[in-house]
Amino acid sequence: MQLPPKVTDRAFERLAEIGAGDQGQALRVAVEGGGCSGFQYEIKLDEPAEDDLVLEGQGEKVVVDSISLPFLADAVIDFTEELIGARFVIENPNASSSCGCGTSFSM
Question: Is residue 2 very low, low, confident or very high in pLDDT (cuts 50, 70, 90)?
């Protein structure tokens, strides 16, 4: 049985700061073919769809479509702030390798 992805408190806090839920939007995390390693993450604000897995916390939502869900089983969705910038990141135990920027991976 595959476990759903987890979302950190820090990621939910960032969504609350930008007011995503107030606008009826959620953070969509999807996996698409492409990128330098074979698959890439698409992370954007979007409206939840009927067949999405919805992860909720602090009044905010993160959604994953049913096609992307197996690629993100047991992954951790987080938010990080560094000198070079701030972004949502995904720690994916299913990825056998990833590129330097962290947005592309292979399985």
Answer: confident
- Closest C-alpha among 31, 16, 27 to residue 62: 27
Residue closest to 35 by CA, chosen among 106, 94, 85: 106
Question: Residue 63: what are its φ and ψ, rounded to 5°?
Answer: -120, 145
2 and 66 in contact (C-beta within 8 Å)?
A: no
Q: Alpha helices, DSSP H only, in the chain?
A: 9-18
Task: Name all domains of the chain by residue range, CATH numbers in brackets.
Answer: 6-106 (2.60.300.12)
Question: Quick one: which of 16, 66, 32, 22 has its CA closest to 7?
Answer: 16
Q: Are 68 and 30 in contact (CB under 8 A)?
A: yes
Which of the pair, 104 or 82, is modelled with greater confidence?
82
